Amino acid sequence: MAYKDLHNFVNHLENNNELKRISTEVDSYLEITEIADRVSKEYGPALLFENVKNSKYPVLINAMGTYERMAMSLGVEKLDDIGNDISEFIDMTNYLGLMNKFKSLPRLTRLATVFPIKLPTKGACQEVIEMDPDLSTLPILHCWPQDAGRFVTLPLVFTKDPETETQNVGMYRLQVFDKNTTGMHWHLHKDGREIYEKYKLKGGKMPVSVALGCDPAITYSATAPLPKMIDEMMFAGFLRKSPVKLVKSITNDIYVPADAEFVIEGYVDVNEDLRLEGPFGDHTGYYSLADYYPVFHVTCITHKKKAIYPATIVGKPPMEDCYMGKATERIFLPLLKMQYPDIIDINFPLEGVFHNCVIVSIKKRYPGHAKKIMNSLWGIGQMMYTKMIIVVDENVSPQDISTVAWKVFNNIDAKRDVVISEGPLDALDHASDLPHYGYRMGIDATKKWKSEGHAREWPDDIEMNDEVKELVSRRWKEYGF
């Protein structure tokens, strides 16, 4: 289902007992973080703080902070449903033959929903236009004690490639420097940084618009690891089964979601010196180090008359961003399996905070197959950041951490089965000697064959025979269990 806007999603959460309103005055300086952190660790509800000190806007946080709410935000019962939809949509066998052509009509009709619609008029996000913008009026969070200041934590940063005119959307935190400037946290490997580098060759000012508070499918799409040729708003349209409505920004030519709660417009002067940004309490559970980034100058803020300010906090898992990562895992698994059919399942454990650990099960077909899968994954987009890849056999579920640990602890010979790979790392990785570069580890925990150099016979797993298991299953209740 498509939510019209964030208000519609809030109503849906409340109707399903997934939202708690807090009317007591709270402080955006640390207090909201402490409350939200405790709630997220207890897998609690979304929170709507209706009375935030020194601001007239309510704050919504933890809106996608469980598996159930993450699925609800994308309009499905299970996150795997989206991956299955994508798999069916791009499976060409569904379109072959006369009967299949008729059956495929609903899929082809859905294709029409992916293309955004540019409205000729102003949108709801422009009900109020502030040409003398002041970021201090927004309830922007100071999340952790050692943070360098207040940070916008759930921004959809829209930019436009100066060569192709193609828009890009990414989620990059914004540290507030003063009432109308922020940092622009474009990592070395991010698309926003690449577009910024193109503008540097031209000189001058790079237009930027930042949307806050959209239909959650739009917000999630800004984080999705899409190929460069796929427009994030097209992907959002596919997820929500309804086109995203866009309107032109007031002060530049960038189009933004018409039903956003806030839009912050401005520019980055590519000739301006970079400014120190950070530290920031990050999703790794540690403070990311301060570094130099471009400065975003705010020239206009537009918003709804009754706008809700969206926020998230990151830190030691589990937190809300973990479930956005799990959505990526389940949504893109079918595409991964199309490239590598021997992959059975995959798991990004919450404790791995996106990039630090991936567990993958495979249907092993030849010697060294597990090592081939490791190197293939390190070669795919953001998977290059993965610090540890664990490969297990097809009869082991990557979701069963206990069994995976058992296989790793008992199945490996360190010299033979551990791979050390040199390459790029996430900018937030504090453990490597050098920024952006270091070493990744692969662990082959599959059953070893003689053709892989294991001369001895590999032992069988201990398992009861089927007759006894069936007998006990029939009598289970009789035993008092």
Task: Describe the structure in your own words.
- With 481 residues, the protein is an alpha+beta fold.
- It folds into two domains: 305 residues, Electron Transport, Fmn-binding Protein, Chain A (Pnp Oxidase, Chain A, Roll); 113 residues, UbiD C-terminal domain-like (3-Layer(aba) Sandwich).
- Helices cover 28% and strands 23% of the residues.
- It is built from 14 helices and 25 strands.
- The strands form six sheets. Strands 5, 6, 7, 8, 9, 10, 11, 14 and 19 form a nine-stranded antiparallel beta sheet that branches. Strands 21-22-23-25-24 form a five-stranded mixed beta sheet, with helices on both faces. Strands 1-2-3-20 form a four-stranded mixed beta sheet.
- Helix 4 packs parallel to helix 10.
- It is globular and about 75 Å long.
- 41% of the residues are buried.
- The mean pLDDT is 91.
- Belongs to the UbiD family.
- InterPro entries: HBDC, UbiD, UbiD-like_C, UbiD-like_N, UbiD_Rift_dom.
Question: Topology, pairings included?
Answer:
Elements: H1 6-15, E1 19-22, H2 31-41, E2 46-49, E3 59-61, H3 67-73, H4 80-90, H5 98-103, H6 105-111, E4 117-118, E5 128-130, E6 151-152, E7 156-160, E8 167-170, E9 174-178, E10 181-183, H7 191-202, E11 205-212, H8 216-221, H9 232-240, E12 245-248, E13 255-257, E14 262-269, E15 275-277, E16 280-281, E17 287-288, E18 291-293, E19 295-303, E20 309-310, H10 320-339, E21 343-347, E22 358-362, H11 369-378, E23 388-393, H12 401-411, H13 414-417, E24 418-424, E25 437-444, H14 466-475
Parallel strand pairs: 1-2, 3-20, 4-12, 22-23, 23-25
Antiparallel strand pairs: 2-3, 5-19, 6-9, 7-8, 7-11, 9-10, 10-19, 11-14, 12-13, 14-19, 15-18, 16-17, 21-22, 24-25
Helix pairs in contact: 4-10
GO molecular function, one term: 4-hydroxy-3-polyprenylbenzoate decarboxylase activity
Domain 3-octaprenyl-4-hydroxybenzoate carboxy-lyase-like C-terminal: 322-445
Protein name: Menaquinone biosynthesis decarboxylase
